[in-house]
Design goal:
Elements (H helix, E strand, L loop, with lengths): L3 H5 L4 H4 L32 H6 L15 E12 L6 E7 L3 E6 L3 E7 L2 E6 L5 E4 L5 E13 L4 E13 L7 E16 L5 E14 L1
Length: 208
């Protein structure tokens, strides 16, 4: 197999490392999948006929979930590069989402110092985390510091930011901090680039 410098020094490693940036997850989540404070009383949205007659303004009676609330979040994640192209996929468990799957956005290695590599998500790219009910949470890696301890294994820390979503996570914000990530080169892609597997646990906050 190629040496670490030969494999890791390639500019395409940015794409190969994409799966590492995601948002990662924990088990105490299924009971949180739908919080009771988000249920909407339909009767509370109905206006008396006399109030409707007195108003010439357009009245928005769209059901709303209420004020955004900041909640603790934990993630456990395992990811793997796509064997035949850039990007990757991941699975895991995340508070408020239940069992998750996801796809990685494109990123880049922006600094190399010896055996330490720094990675971030490219502007306009995002990771997509799919909740058990198919709602989405979007995330991006602000900074991922990868330290190789052999030619095929590394550890990493990572700061992930939530940048939106769909359904009940529309407009979501917050962060995840990864302190104990592990990375392993497990083979080669069809084009000869390294095939990478990642695993981590993270904690943070999400507001939605």
């Amino acid at each position: 197999m190629k040496t670490m410098k030969q494999i890791i020094g390639k500019s395409v490693l940015g794409a190969a490392l994409i799966t590492a940036f995601f948002v990662t997850f924990s088990c105490s989540q299924f009971s949180d999948a739908y919080d009771s404070d988000e249920l909407v009383d339909k009767e509370a949205l109905m206006l008396p006929p006399e109030e409707l007659e007195l108003s010439d303004e357009l009245i928005d009676i769209t059901a709303r979930k209420g004020n955004d609330v900041t909640r603790s979040v934990r993630i456990t994640l395992e990811g793997i590069d796509n064997a035949d192209g850039p990007g990757g996929t991941f699975t895991g468990i995340m508070t408020h989402l239940g069992k998750i799957t996801g796809v990685s956005g494109l990123g880049e290695i922006y600094d190399v110092q010896g055996n330490v590599f720094k990675f971030r998500t490219l502007p306009g790219e995002k990771d997509i985390i799919y909740a058990a009910n198919r709602d989405e949470v979007w995330a991006a890696t602000d900074d991922m510091i990868i330290t190789f301890n052999s030619e095929t294994t590394a550890v990493y820390t990572q700061l992930i930011t939530f940048i939106g979503g769909t359904g009940r996570f529309e407009g979501a914000s917050g962060f995840l901090e990864i302190e104990n990530g592990t990375l392993e080169i497990v083979g080669l892609k069809t084009n000869g680039d390294p095939l990478i597997r990642t695993s981590h646990v993270g904690n943070g906050e999400i507001t939605y």
